[in-house]
Design brief:
Layout (H helix, E strand, L loop, with lengths): L2 E4 L8 H23 L3 H17 L13 H17 L5 H16 L9 H12 L3 E5 L4 H9 L12 E3 L9 H10 L7 E5 L2 H9 L3 E5 L13 E3 L7
Parallel strand pairs: 1-2, 1-4, 2-3, 4-5, 5-6
The chain binds magnesium ion.
The site of magnesium ion (MG) has 7 residues, from loops.
């Protein structure tokens, strides 16, 4: 094995981190954050993307529209739209873009820290020492991934990670995505081990020819019956 490809949620990091820390951070700081950063160019870029998304959503959903008028009304309508998207757990690029932007400030100010399982961190260090390359493939944006690993509760782990992939390469349940990643990192799928808590992702990677291990962690969804190897301590994987 040359390459280890890791999922994040339910694999290196508790699923609860996203739902009990990252998402609540966005919701609880949104109003204050928008006020504080209102004139930042980057925020205005994200607002434009959210407006465009709201227009596209209009015929299909009961999406709250974003009003372009005075800053107070615009901000209030933005908050309605963002709360609505997050309640539906939508994964639009516009929403992810704003969330990533807010998380960056949260991590940099020390209000947020990426939570990692101890054995996952130890294993990542061991694999690197053994000469293996470690990559991340997560549905969170590459920027969000780098923040979790860069500002983790085990320090900055980015030095151990050779590269990051998100759903821009394709869906995590599509075997083509895993073929593309192997090609991109110049290895054969057979030389790559993919670890994830999601059986559909595991099946897709396996179909692409990768070796696979199912991550078993506290708080993960119950697994359907399967014939793949399982692990709850990655330091035993070599
Ligand atoms: Mg996962």
């Amino acid at each position: 094995m040359e390459v280890i490809l890791l999922d994040i949620e339910g694999t290196t990091t508790p699923i609860s981190f996203v739902h009990e820390t990252l998402f609540p951070y966005v919701l609880s700081t949104l109003d204050e954050f928008l006020k504080a950063h209102w004139t930042d160019q980057e925020l205005q870029f994200h607002i434009q993307a959210l407006e465009e998304q709201a227009r596209q959503d209009q015929p299909h959903y009961d999406a709250p529209q974003i009003i372009s008028s005075d800053p107070d009304s615009t901000r209030k309508s933005l908050i309605d739209n963002i709360q609505w998207q997050m309640k539906l757990d939508r994964k639009t690029s516009a929403l992810k873009g704003l969330q990533g932007y807010m998380w960056r400030f949260g991590y940099q100010s020390g209000q947020l820290q990426g939570v990692m399982f101890d054995d996952a961190v130890q294993a990542i260090k061991n694999w690197t020492q053994e000469g293996k390359r470690v990559y991340i493939y997560s549905s969170g944006s590459v920027e969000a991934q780098k923040l979790i690993f860069g500002y983790s509760d085990h320090g900055n782990l980015l030095q151990y990670i050779s590269g990051h992939y998100d759903t821009k390469v394709g869906a995590k349940t599509s075997s083509d995505s895993y073929r593309k990643i192997a090609e991109d990192i110049k290895t054969k799928p057979e030389n790559t081990l993919f670890i994830s808590d999601n059986i559909r992702e595991i099946e897709a990677a396996n179909q692409a020819g990768m070796q696979v291990v199912v991550s078993v962690r506290p708080g993960n969804a119950p697994l359907p019956s399967h014939n793949f190897a399982e692990s709850s301590d990655f330091t035993t994987i070599h």
